[in-house]
Amino acid sequence: MPNRLADETSPYLQQHADNPVDWRPWNAAALALAQQENKPILLSIGYSACHWCHVMAHESFEDPAVAAVMNELFVNIKVDREERPDLDQIYQTAHHMLTQRSGGWPLTMFLTPSGVPFYGGTYFPKSQRYGLPSFSDILQRVAQTYRERQDDIKNQSASLLQALDSTVPTRRQQPELAADFNNQPLTQLREQLAEAFDTRFGGFGGAPKFPHPTDLAFLLRRADDPVGREMALTTLRRMAEGGIYDQIGGGFCRYSVDAVWSIPHFEKMLYGNGPLISLYADAWALTKEALFKDVTEQTADWLLREMQSPTGGYYSSLDADSEGEEGKFYVWDRAQVQHLLSAEEYAVAARRWGLNGTPNFEGTHWHLRITGALPADQAGLLHSARAKLFAAREQRIRPGRDDKILTSWNALMIEGLAHAARIFDRGDWLVSARNALNFIRRELWRGGRLLATCKDGRSHLDAYLDDHAFLLSALLELMQAKFRSEDLQFACALANDLLDHFEDKSQGGFFFTRHDHEVLIHRPKPGHDNATPAGNGVAAHALQRLSLLTGDLRYAEAAERTLRLYQPQFVRQPGGFTTLLSALAEWLKPPRLVILRGPADEIAAWQSQLAGLARPDVLAVSLPNGFAGLPATLDKPASDQVNAWVCSGVTCLAPIANWPDLQRILLEQASGN
């Protein structure tokens, strides 16, 4: 019989609906049951594309004997960390405090009936191995501890809650708060990234190696730092050449298990590919290297082909596993490839993708990565070889797809794809991004309240800080690609929601959850970047830009309060605060606002040339004649030819009527002249 997860919207929870474990979703009824029966809670947090989540499920949660112990001793709650990032943040932090070890997924936490954790770990094997006790032994020992050591648990719980509270920054805790901002944290971050940079293979640190798009964006978009920019470009090249990039189907996997980007953990996440497609578009604009263009186009092709729903929204992820094996969908043996390709095609493919070397995946298979140069006269052969391998791979059993649609992750992809569309002048990409936004407005914006997730037409869960901040940032990018008054109105509604329902008015910064959110054991106010950029950093950055567009100083003031709150942290240790520091950089030197007015057909050419400059220090909007109801900051007079206004703060230069003059002024201002 299915348990209580069968009707949930999360594919991850639905994967466990037929377990013999009496799983319950996180809700008031499950928490009340724990209180009523005085049973500890076994909280298991994971996500559908997680390899080790699958392993633990197959080993333990599908085993009737293990399930019987769980059902007898615990109230068992399953949580999708993608739908409930609030719970995941809280209990990952608590896990680290309790164990002094990094967390991950599956996260396995044991809670008192009031929700306070007293023991935890990540993956536990069914039988004793990897230096870990068996899961059944853990269950018995934890239950015994709960019965026999209530006083110890009560004391530990009080200390843990106090420790969690201390992680929330307040200005009262920070007497060393400096009066003024300066460039020093930016310089320190740049130095730290340089120290961690892998000069040979790119990226930062060793294995496992993650893309860190926030750090790459910080380096790539600093026009006055050619060495830092080259660090970013080197990393983007090595990633594009490696196995972390799908050489056949496009798109990036979550991370590389080695330091050379060769073998990935094969899951593909929407949230990682959105920022990366933006970065590769910028890399092409700066260098015109064909590799960057190919990666941008192939990743966009993958997105539109496999990740966009017929209703417009983008799906969340592709699993690492197929047929019970990680990576099986993606890897090849040499005989397969030789059989599929002509002799000429195989000779080129083998040199290009390493098939003429030794196998690099589990001893007998090849995971393709670029190992050799491609002469221009052989590009056609490689193209046909890639097409044949793609067609053959499409006949394999595919990895599972998590088809829920998350507001925050959609926003990251909308922003990334809209930015790439602007750089490459690709109207089809802009249509895709616009369709995703339309889905959010139609399905996830209900009565002036943003929701977090939708699947099969069912939208629910109040949206979090990240949903609002990322979507606001995406709207700013869409308005640069093609301005619509309704986008500006929606952006202001989201910004007002942030100020009214998330901001800590007395201390500054934004809580992760709304003021009327379910009361949990802790309310985070995160400023540190993780796999996705920090919501507080994105909010500060986007609010500053929205203030430039609208002239509404409330937005800039909220952004400044956020920077003031986190200033002591990013001054002491700038690493990990890259998004907030990017907002600081724009506070210190706001972008120029460029407003184009004129006939629609003529203004499009100017807009395309302006996008080609790839100036991160320019916020540009094109307003063809006919727009009405604009804020005073944008309401420039219409004319029968294109005019450009370049504004810094409230001061604008005289209108500029020819493109060479505009280009010259922007470049001169960028160089400080």
In summary, what is this structure?
The protein has 673 residues and is an alpha+beta fold. The protein has 24 helices and 20 strands.
Characteristics of this structure?
673 residues, alpha+beta, Glutaredoxin, 49% helix
Structural notes for this entry:
- With 673 residues, this protein is of the alpha+beta class.
- Among the domains are: 11-167, Glutaredoxin; 330-395, no CATH class; 592-670, no CATH class.
- The chain is 49% helix and 11% strand.
- Strand 19 (643-648) and strand 20 (651-652) form a beta hairpin.
- Helix 9 crosses helix 10, helix 9 (213-220) runs parallel beside helix 11 and helix 20 packs parallel to helix 22.
- It is globular and about 80 Å long.
- The N and C termini lie far apart (73 Å).
Q: How does the helix and strand content classify structurally?
A: alpha+beta
Strand order of the largest sheet: 1-3-2-4-5
Enumerate how many helices there are, as a single number.
24
Q: Report the CATH topology name of the domain at 11-167.
A: Glutaredoxin
**End-to-end C-alpha gap:** 73 Å
Q: What is the level-2 CATH architecture name of the domain at 11-167?
A: 3-Layer(aba) Sandwich
Total beta strands: 20
Uncertain ranges: none
Which range does the strand content fall in? 5-15%
Largest sheet: 5 strands, mixed
CATH class of the domain at 11-167: Alpha Beta
Mean pLDDT across the residues is 95
Q: Which geometry do the CA atoms define?
A: globular
Helicity range of the residues? 40-55%
Output the radius of gyration: 26 Å
> Can you say what the CATH homologous superfamily of the domain at 11-167 is?
Glutaredoxin
